[in-house]
Amino acid sequence: MPSQTTLLPNVSGRSFTILKYVNKVPSFASCSKCQQKFFTPPSHRFVPSGASDYLKEKFLWHKCVASGIEETKKAKSGGVNF
Predict the structure, then answer these.
(1) Tally of CB atoms within 10 A around 3
(2) CA–CA gap between residue 15 and residue 64 (Å, rounded)
(3) Interatomic CA distance for residues 66 and 46, integer angstroms
(4) pTM for the structure as a whole
(5) 44 near 51, Cβ under 8 Å?
(6) Rounded distance, CA 47 to CA 30, Å?
């Protein structure tokens, strides 16, 4: 597995990137816009699809703070295809 994998297309000027894998399981990801980090919890560390889904969901629901304006980043109507 590559050390970095961008899984979701650019949504509102940001993208989701997996930064680290442990035994082929995504363990660490970030948002390209605000650099917020997302970690896989222990309950998902042995199931690659569960870990990936967990990290994607965290990314989709997080809020970036840019120029003092908080933007809700949940994909809406038609959203992002996984």
Answers:
(1) 8
(2) 12
(3) 35
(4) 0.67
(5) yes
(6) 19
pLDDT at 21 over 50: yes
Could you tell me the CA-to-CA distances from 13 to 33, 39, 48, 59, 68 in Å, in that order?
Answer: 7, 22, 27, 13, 16
What are the structure tokens assigned to 14, written together?
Answer: 């940001």
Cβ within 8 Å of residue 22, ≥6 positions away: 45
pLDDT in tens, 23-76: 999 999 999 889 999 999 999 989 999 999 999 999 999 988 754 444 444 444
Q: What is the pLDDT of residue 14?
A: 82
3-state secondary structure at position 43: helix
User: Domains of the chain: which residue ranges?
Assistant: 5-72
